[in-house]
Write a structure and sequence with these properties.
Blueprint lengths: L8 H5 L27 E4 L5 E3 L11 E4 L5 E8 L5 E10 L9 E8 L2 E4 L7 E11 L4 E11 L3 E10 L10 H8 L17
Antiparallel strand pairs: 1-4, 2-3, 3-10, 4-9, 5-8, 5-10, 6-7, 6-9
Organism: Edaphosphingomonas haloaromaticamans
Pfam family, one: PEP-CTERM
Protein name: Ice-binding protein C-terminal domain-containing protein
Length: 199
């Protein structure tokens, strides 16, 4: 996997936050309800990544993924799609809500096909929000990959779905509103060195 890049603010504005659709068949075990990472390929230092059930930390159902390695890890799948079709990735994510240390050493990126989005480095703690990103399939497979590090806390991930864009209709709320709400638009959005690189 190549180096992950950050998107400039205009690209952030194009990404929506909405209500997660029902679990799509394209992603295997996107809700982690198997209680493990079945269907996913793990990479990097994933020793502390786990699927867990904990009151107040699971978004939906019984399990959510807790991702918090010290040096960075990945979670990925190769999806069977139709070339030329646009697909929408939807997922819910939290940065250890209630943990005052959650804005420590952390980074989060997601890639769908040729589209990559990264949160600013050392992002603040926040409760679950629903995020979407769209990508055009240029072949009959589409790579989905999450890359992250979080020390001393955890990213909480759940309800990962990929659907054709026509079937996924996010609400008009934008990433910009999320970032403004956290008060991080400005210095946090400056271009910095690339955050994560995995081979």
């Amino acid at each position: 996997m190549g180096t992950l890049r950050k998107l400039a603010l205009p690209a952030l504005l194009a990404l929506g936050i909405g209500t997660a659709p029902a679990q799509a068949a394209l992603v295997t075990n996107g809700d982690f309800e198997t209680g493990d990472f079945s269907g996913w390929t793990q990479g990097g230092d994933f020793a502390t990544d786990n699927v867990f059930t904990a009151p107040g930390h699971v978004y939906d159902g019984t399990y959510s993924a807790a991702l918090g390695t010290l040096t960075g890890s990945t979670l990925s799948q190769v999806l069977n799609v139709v070339a030329g079709q646009t697909y929408t990735l939807t997922f819910v994510l939290a940065n250890a809500p209630g943990n005052t240390n959650a804005s420590g050493n952390n980074a989060f990126s997601v890639t769908l096909g040729d589209e990559t989005f990264s949160l600013p480095d050392n992002f603040v703690a926040f409760d679950y929000g629903t995020f979407t990103i769209e990508a055009l399939a240029t072949s009959d497979t589409l790579n989905l990959a999450f890359s992250f590090l979080n020390n001393p806390s955890d990213w909480l991930l759940d309800n990962v779905t990929v659907e054709t864009a026509a079937n996924a209709v996010p609400e008009p709320t934008t990433w910009a509103m999320l970032l403004v709400g956290f008060g991080v638009v400005g210095t946090s959005m400056r271009r910095r060195r690339q955050v994560l690189s995995f081979s």
